[in-house]
Amino acid sequence: MTEHDLVVIGGGATGLAAAVQMGRMRRTVAVIDSGRPRNAPAGHMHSYPGLDGVAPVDYLATVRAEARHYGATFTSGEAVRVSGDVHDGFVVTLADGNRIRGRRVLLATGITDLLPDIPGVRERWGNDVIHCPFCHGWEVRDQRIVVVDTHGLGGHQATLFRQLSPEVTLVVHSGDGPDEATAGGLAALGVTVVHAAVERVRQADDGRVAGVVLVDGTAVDADVVVVGAPFRPNLDSLVLAGLQLAPHPSGLGDVVTVDETCRTNLPGVLAAGNLVDPSQQVLQAAAQGARLGGLLTAELIHDDIARLQTAQRDATFWDTRYGNQPGQMWSGRVNGSFEVELTGALSTVAPGRALDVGCGEGADAIWLAQRGWDVTAVDISPTAVERAAAAAADHGVKVRFEARDLVTHPPAPGSFDMVSIQYPALRRDAGPSGVLALWDALDRGGTMLVVWHAPLDPDGEHQPGHGAFDPTRFVSSSDLLAWLREYRGHELTVDVHERRPRPNPPTNSHHVDDVVMRLRRA
Same structural domain for residues 346 and 252? Predict the structure, then answer.
């Protein structure tokens, strides 16, 4: 499962604009699209300079192509769960079980208009039953307009539409209708107000709107019907614990609460478009998506800088430690638990391609090479690698030694039959990316063998020569297994995960037990 910089849930104007903006900065974006845009019933969209009158379906197709051009990937389906956090990354699960991983998540699912249960409204919605004067008003100018008030906003709508036509009637279908001030304004504008329930929208023989019929049988002629529908955010099927919503000032529904940069109350989760502001047209929704795409791009590079600086500090620490050690730091003997596994449970495995992660001065790598393995051994300390290469030469074996950080510069996927990680010092705050990259370096059927020092009692957590060591800062066996189960569970087999006595521990070590984990990739 590839980690994307951003996973967008929703393939409308907002999500696509964010994908284009970030893609142009060579950021990776995955878009999940259920294919249900709010403006799908409309034949044209308006108030978008340069694109006025374009069909919504054509607009979306054009922007999708642009996003693809800049590297965005698209998955059709419905997101049902968002798990994880900004520290470890997020996983978005789809209804079909597919999962997509990202550093950030953008909710751009939009809203659904909850149309009144009046026959004819749904059938003509987006054509001559409309709700937005800015979206459709110019096209219905000078026509007979009936505004059906179902939720108290009819007076406001009638006032706006009166600017477009002299023939506007407000029918108060339910509720008290406009307040005294609004009623006075409507009277001044010449808007007729009728208090009566609407039985149905009347249609002409050609299917177009001809007016409305009231429950008493009265017909009100019209060419256009306006309704102000409540709405619901398109989040019903999405499990995202703790996401904060609030009532919209109109009283027509709830919206996701965000700050001025589109951040929700959940770190790393953003929301934009109609999901946060139902009044947005395509132009505003796209602009908001483009803006947050720029903000996220800047945020992510600062995260990258911090990660790289941490890696550089780690490399400096270890190289200084090796450099300050006269002679060898370690014993030069193969690690005991590693040897037990290779000569025991793995003794029947044919030698293949092995990656030794954090090889130190090379004892394990040399031991493997002596037994026919094709070994690549990597450490972040150039001094350690120099010593390891010299030791391999002394033993007359060939090992590829490399000084690099495998978290920031991971190996190629599927390139090894075994990955060995002995007593790792992988920072937990780097998240699961490095661990997943090492797992992905395994070929199908390959083995990952990881050995940790078993946790010490509270009085023994400082090992001589190591200084203060906080084990919670580093990836534990539980962390590694949890990440692999979360992100690679479909291809993971746990053969061994146990605590056992450490074979031949150094005499000055407080660590007498190891935690051994042997995993296989399906």
Answer: no
pLDDT above 50: residue 458: no
Please answer whether residues 397 and 370 qualify as being in contact, where contact means their C-beta atoms are separated by less than 8 angstroms.
yes
Please report which confidence band the pLDDT of residue 457 belongs to, taking 50, 70 and 90 as the band edges: low
> In angstroms, how far is the first alpha carbon of the chain from the final one?
14
| Residues 261 and 342 occupy one common structural domain | no
Domain of 207, CATH number, reads 3.50.50.60
Q: By CB neighbour count within 10 A (0-12 exposed, 13-18 middle, 19+ buried), where does 99 fall?
A: middle
Specify if 312 maps to a domain.
no
- Mark whether 351 and 456 lie in a shared domain: yes
Burial degree of 71 (CB within 10 A; 0-12, 13-18, 19+): middle
The 10s digit of each residue's pLDDT in 164-216 is 999 999 999 999 999 999 999 999 999 999 999 999 999 999 999 999 999 99
> Is residue 54 assigned to a domain?
yes
- Listed in order, strand segments (DSSP E) in 215-323 are 219-221, 224-227, 231-233, 245-247, 254-256, 269-271
Residue 139 and residue 269 in one domain: no
> Tell me, what's the pLDDT at 438?
96
Q: Which two tokens stand for residue 306?
A: 């911090």
| Residues 500 and 513 grouped into a single domain | yes
Which residues, at least 6 apart from 283, have a Cβ–Cβ distance to it below 8 Å? Answer: 47, 48, 49
What count of Cα atoms within 13 Å lies in the side-chain half-sphere of residue 128?
A: 21
pLDDT value of position 469: 60
Q: Is 205 exposed, middle or buried (0-12, 13-18, 19+ CB in 10 A)?
A: exposed
Task: Give yes or no: residues 81 and 137 share one domain.
Answer: no
Q: Where among 184, 210, 227 does a domain terminate?
A: 227
Residue at 7: amino acid letter: V
Select from 227, 277, 280 the least CA-distant residue to 248: 277
Q: What is the largest CA-CA distance in the chain?
A: 103
Number of folded domains that form the chain = 3
pTM of the model as a whole:
0.81
The Cα–Cα gap between 92 and 100 comes to 5
Q: Which residues of 355-390 are buried (b: 16+ CB within 10 A; e: fewer)?
A: bbbbbbbbbbbbbbbeeebebbbbbbbbbbbbbbbe
Domain ranges, residue 32: 3-112+231-304
Residue 378: φ, ψ to 5°: -130, 140
Give the separation between CA 327 and CA 234, rounded to whole angstroms: 65
**Is-contact 201 118, C-beta < 8 A?**
yes
Query: Does a structural domain hold residue 315?
Result: no
Residue 464, pLDDT above cutoff 50 = no
